[in-house]
Structures are given as structure tokens and as C-alpha cells.
Amino acid sequence: MIVAGFGFRSGATAASLRAALDAARIAGWPVTHLATIEDKAEALAELARLLVLPLIAVTPARIFGLATPTRSLASQAARGAGSVAEACALVAAGPGARLLAPRSISHDRMATCALAAGVST
């Protein structure tokens, strides 16, 4: 299982989300699931449908206080995690998951995406 976790601003477009995903997949990892914080899942659903991938909605409590390699002050203040994308990817990929790389940022800086591999991968 390889999960693409997303963090994004309210004004992020489908193109922003896709750009962040494309940047994260530069190494060619085969993404099997998308994930984001539950109150933003609706905005990511269009991309999930387009890619025919399951979408995992992560509760805010599951990422609060989770250590991530990236430390965004905005993310820390808003969600209690250094990177929403990295935290959602790790939580959605399950216990023992590992990040494949730090988050990638869309060209317009509206969305971030990080890939995490579950232990079965």
C-alpha cells in the first residue's frame, strides 16, 4: 500500500492537487490510496474519482502531535502536525508506515503531497 497524503489550502484547485501528486510521484511509486484530513476530503474526492483510487479521511486527532520530517509553522498552528500531508500519509498507510520522501509542493504553493508505504509494501 502506498498512500499519497495531502495538505492544502482552502483555495487549492484540482490542478494544484494534481501538481503536488505529480511532484511527489517523480520516483514513479505506484500510489494505491489518497488521504487527507477529514474536513478536506470532499475537495480531494474529485481527484480520487479521476484516478480511480480510494480516499481515506483522517481525523484531526490522529495527526495531532505526530512527528514529521517537515516542520511548517502554519501546519503546526492549524493542525498540530509539522506537515498535514506527511502525517495523513503515515496514518493512512497504517502502523509501521514510513515516508518515501518529504512532502512535495505544488507549483502554486497551494497543496502539498507526501507518499508513505505501509509495511506490506
From TrEMBL:
| Domain CobE/GbiG C-terminal, residue spans | 2-116
The record's section on InterPro entries has:
CobE/GbiG_C (IPR002750), CobE/GbiG_C_sf (IPR036518)
Which Pfam families does the entry link to?
CbiG_C (PF01890)
Spell out the coiled coil positions from the record. Answer: none
What is the protein named? Cobalamin biosynthesis protein
- This chain's source organism reads Novosphingobium anseongense
